[in-house]
């Protein structure tokens, strides 16, 4: 079982490095259903794994000069505030309800990935700072509460926020996701603890995947990969929603 979890964790890290997201969407089910952790520990563990993995995946992008530090800092600080608040709320919700909310986030993220988004007109003015801060706050609340959804909301937000090209948005999103996840984890740790016997090996395996995936960002067709990944996440989300919804009702 441990080897299966580690192999899947490498896949998680690979998607984090390639897409600037997807880690939490896969890590929570991995820890909850394959490793067998309670929902509260699975979500907290996912936030730790994604925080570390995103920070490591950020390094190759930073060496290439692809990270927009100022944009990431502005967006990340507001997201951290929301993530801490979300983590404090999530730490006090029943595990079954957390998993239902997580599944809803999975389905919403999957639909967004499958539909894609319209190209941004470079002539359009950047998003006003106040609106950007509110977007960051809202994304942070979602990430902190259920431990999922950050990457595939942060990348589009950065494209609209500062008109970043896709490669730079993916790189900068890793900075924001690391900040979000760390803040959300702080909130969740007020109500649960981390099972280090699972979290540390999964983190190590995910880091390996992220280091492999990050340099390949510009060599892989992002839209095709994201759409295929979206269909997989949609199926997974529907499964989690049905399973946890029945448990919540029962």
Automatic annotation (TrEMBL):
Q: Which PANTHER family match?
A: MEMBRANE TRANSPORTER PROTEIN MJ0441-RELATED (PTHR43701), MEMBRANE TRANSPORTER PROTEIN YJNA-RELATED (PTHR43701:SF2)
> Taxonomically, which superkingdom?
Bacteria
For this chain, the family text in UniProt reads: Belongs to the 4-toluene sulfonate uptake permease (TSUP) (TC 2.A.102) family.
Which parts of the chain span the membrane according to its record? 6-35, 42-61, 67-89, 96-114, 134-162, 169-190, 196-217, 229-249
**A single GO cellular-component term on record:** plasma membrane
- UniProtKB keywords: Cell membrane, Membrane, Transmembrane, Transmembrane helix
What's the protein called, per UniProt?
A: Probable membrane transporter protein
Q: Where in the cell is it found?
A: Cell membrane; Membrane
How this chain sits in the membrane, per its record, is: Multi-pass membrane protein
> What InterPro entries does the entry give?
TM_pro_TauE-like, TSUP/Inactive_protease-like
Asked whether the keyword Transmembrane helix is assigned, the reply is yes
**Main location, first listed in the record:** membrane
Q: What is the lineage of its organism?
A: Bacteria, Bacillati, Actinomycetota, Actinomycetes, Micrococcales
């Amino acid at each position: 079982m441990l080897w299966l979890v580690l192999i899947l964790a490498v896949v998680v890290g690979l998607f984090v490095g390639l897409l600037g997201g997807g880690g939490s969407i896969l890590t929570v089910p991995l820890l909850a259903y394959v490793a067998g952790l309670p929902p509260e520990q699975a979500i907290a563990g996912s936030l730790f794994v994604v925080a570390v993995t995103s920070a490591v995946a950020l390094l190759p992008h930073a060496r290439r000069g692809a990270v927009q530090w100022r944009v990431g800092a502005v967006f990340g600080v507001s997201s951290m505030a929301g993530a801490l608040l979300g983590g404090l709320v999530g730490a006090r919700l029943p595990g079954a309800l957390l998993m239902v909310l997580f599944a809803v986030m999975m389905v919403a993220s999957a639909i967004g990935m499958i539909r894609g988004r319209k190209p941004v007109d470079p002539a359009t003015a950047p998003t006003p700072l106040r609106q950007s801060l509110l977007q960051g706050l809202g994304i942070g609340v979602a990430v902190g509460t259920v431990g999922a959804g950050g990457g595939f909301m942060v990348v589009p937000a950065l494209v609209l926020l500062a008109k970043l090209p896709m490669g730079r948005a993916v790189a900068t999103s890793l900075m924001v996701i690391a900040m979000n996840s760390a803040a959300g984890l702080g909130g969740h740790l007020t109500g649960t603890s981390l099972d280090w016997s699972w979290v540390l090996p999964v983190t190590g395996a995910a880091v390996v995947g992220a280091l492999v995936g990050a340099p390949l960002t510009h060599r892989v067709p992002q839209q095709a990969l994201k759409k295929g990944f979206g269909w997989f996440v949609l199926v997974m989300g529907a499964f989690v929603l049905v399973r946890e919804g029945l448990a919540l009702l029962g």
